[in-house]
Specification:
Elements lengths: L2 H14 L7 E4 H9 L8 H4 L9 H5 L9 E13 L24 E4 L5 H7 L8 H5 L2 H12 L5 E4 L4 H7 L5 E5 H10 L4 E16 L6 H14 L2 H6 L7 E2 L32 E3 L2 H20 L1
Parallel strand pairs: 3-4, 3-5, 6-8
Antiparallel strand pairs: 1-6, 2-5, 2-6, 2-7
Helix pairs in contact: 2-12, 5-7
Length: 306
Amino acid sequence: ESSAEAVAKLRAMAEAGNVTWDVVDVVAADAIRLCDEGLAMEVDADSQLAPAPDGTPASEDFGDLLVSSCFIPQIVYSTTFGYRTDMVGDTPPSTVCDVFDTAKYPGKRSLEKRPINNMEWALYCDGVAKDEIYDVLATEAGQDQALAKLDTIKDDVIWWSAGADTPQLLADGEVVMGSTYNGRLFSVIEEQKQPVAMMWDMQVFDLDGWIVPAGLSDERKAAAMDFLYFATDTQRLADQAKYISYGPARKSSAPLVGKHADLGIDMAPHMPTDPENAKNTLLYNYEFWADYRDDIDAKFQAWLAQ
């Protein structure tokens, strides 16, 4: 189930006074919301989570990925672009701005049916410096600028809402390029052996992890924290990279990332956090979207309907 559905269910459980979950898997933005609403328990990383093998406290090991006092990060994933290698001619796309170049790369592209990421990429490819994107996007003029840039490819866009959509569209050759989660693209490229390649430029990092619902009994709380101490330690986070190309949220896990459980290929080069892949990235701005999401969503939906 999606993170948003988990939020709605947890709110309903809390209202009814009957929370049946002990741990909940959510994306960071939803963890921040639940924490703000008092529905998630605050966690002291250094006393309640495992240190790194060399004794580095958990708070340092997770670093700036601890975006909320209620959130225990597990994976770093990214939204980025994949493209059909047999549909782009001799010079494959190499920057996110190639998505907006329909003359050089004709054909349909798939984009997620929401403003998040699309607005940032649009401004970046319209000349806004990366470190100024959110300042510009906070203004009416900046929002209009982003939509005007998206207007230039609107007729060539197939809009997606499920993570599996773009991989399917790419596999079927219905789009020349499209955005989706990097783990989905890994599957298409390495497991399904489709003629698809990854474009890491301006990938947007996001986080998935855990919260513990507020108000649990001491016994349930202790069981939840026992599980999370184990599940988010250095080795466990490195181990999950055997199954999907999402980066472990701890710095100490990176050197321990090994081979894919079935394919036997080294997984480190497929991590969004690999230095080679992370030369030009954007971290999802949680505070910005918490403040502006409703307004920009409404504007984006109105633009879509035009």
